[in-house]
Amino acid sequence: MRQWWQQGSPWVWLSASALLLCLGLFMALLGLIAVKGMQHFWPAPLVQFQLSEQDTPQLGRLVRQVSDRSEAATNGLWLLDRGDGLSKENAENTASSGRYLLLEAQQLLPERPSNAVLVQLHDGRTLYGTMLDAAEVWQSQEQAETGLWLELASQRPVLLPAEDIRAYWLPNQLSLWQRGAVFWQEWRHFLTAAPSQNQSAGGIFPAIFGTLVMVLLMAVLVTPFGILAAIYLHEYAPKNWLTQLIRTSVYNLAGIPSVVMGVFGLAFFVYVLGGSLDRLFYADQLPAPTFGTPGLFWAALTLALLTLPVVIVATEEGLSRLPQAQRLGSFALGATQAETIWKVVVPQAAPAMLTGLILAIARAAGEVAPLMLVGVVKSAPQLPVDMQFPFIHLERKFMHLGYHLYDVGFQSPDAEVAMSLVYAIGLVLLTLILLLNLSAFLLRQRLRRKYRLID
């Protein structure tokens, strides 16, 4: 036992246990986000409820059972979604329309009508009703229009035109395979459509696109400056107090709060640089600003400055791990210092540079606070990249997954109900970060195999 302690085996097992615990917690977190997010798209059955014995039975979808029973009956409470009204005014404000209700268990009726239909409209509204045949409504009139007859609670049957309907299905008649088909259909719509109904419905494609363009533009800006700064500090700069002061400043820059960096980006990049560009090149459009207002380019530049220390430190660490003999051998063969750095040092330090880029992407994709000041908006009518010249519009505002998640989760009038949508957005954000990092990781592994070095 004493020899076992002297060899350090307990610390090895302790480190392994800590690593397994961290991996387990991380996988549990991912599993929770995935399960909660996917529940948002699973077609749940429609139930009938009755607020009082005198009221007409209505249709709704059970969201979840309320855990706090302080004000509940003995059987607990259920949170129920009864859909949007037909009027657009009610659809724009779900709080005033009373879409979500707390029901006692005895108010739920056991019957689940087989002809209960869920209708998704193109404007984002969701309707629950009973699907009728046109012949049952108008016996003497031929149906010249194509659409869907729907009977809503306390209303006469209405005809929904086909051009207004995005999708509909009968939840109480779906088999498991049909539910899976509806699930993937709703996921595809969520990833490819624009938000609607005050960001509480529709899709998140503009947010995905804006996040991807912003991260890629940030990577293009931060990579060359970070690598060049690290090469200068390690290969050219003399080892004196000034170089040490610069390194200390770089390390301190990494500790600046992101919101402070956002304030700096707003003051310097937007108002100073952007205002100067407007006065030089867009004077005829003043006082309406072109670049003197928050936009995509300033957001990417602010995040590039925020993540610059990460790239510098990772690159310099990789440069310091290269054997000095390789540099001396290159000099002995007649190569200049510039040729040695370009053809010997940089290729072998490329994995370390990509490590810094991976860390920069992971941090930039999840930042929200600075972006709220330098370009991100709740809803952007135009994408920052389109088919209009010059195709990439750096001055436009854009949507971001992190800010969209914050807006849905904390600014929605039904924040508790929107939690499943928050989990779904979080799952997409994590997946996007994972794909970006995986691409850089595979490129790094390819370079490692090529030069057989470990950064």
UniProtKB/TrEMBL annotation:
<comment type="similarity">
    <text>Belongs to the binding-protein-dependent transport system permease family. CysTW subfamily.</text>
</comment>
<dbReference type="InterPro" id="IPR035906">
    <property type="entry name" value="MetI-like_sf"/>
</dbReference>
<keyword id="KW-0472">Membrane</keyword>
<protein>
    <recommendedName>
        <fullName>Phosphate transport system permease protein PstA</fullName>
    </recommendedName>
</protein>
<feature type="transmembrane region" description="Helical">
    <location>
        <begin position="207"/>
        <end position="233"/>
    </location>
</feature>
<feature type="transmembrane region" description="Helical">
    <location>
        <begin position="253"/>
        <end position="274"/>
    </location>
</feature>
<keyword id="KW-1133">Transmembrane helix</keyword>
<keyword id="KW-1003">Cell membrane</keyword>
<feature type="transmembrane region" description="Helical">
    <location>
        <begin position="12"/>
        <end position="35"/>
    </location>
</feature>
<keyword id="KW-0812">Transmembrane</keyword>
<keyword id="KW-0813">Transport</keyword>
<dbReference type="InterPro" id="IPR005672">
    <property type="entry name" value="Phosphate_PstA"/>
</dbReference>
<feature type="domain" description="ABC transmembrane type-1">
    <location>
        <begin position="208"/>
        <end position="440"/>
    </location>
</feature>
<dbReference type="InterPro" id="IPR000515">
    <property type="entry name" value="MetI-like"/>
</dbReference>
<feature type="transmembrane region" description="Helical">
    <location>
        <begin position="295"/>
        <end position="314"/>
    </location>
</feature>
<dbReference type="Pfam" id="PF00528">
    <property type="entry name" value="BPD_transp_1"/>
</dbReference>
<feature type="transmembrane region" description="Helical">
    <location>
        <begin position="421"/>
        <end position="443"/>
    </location>
</feature>
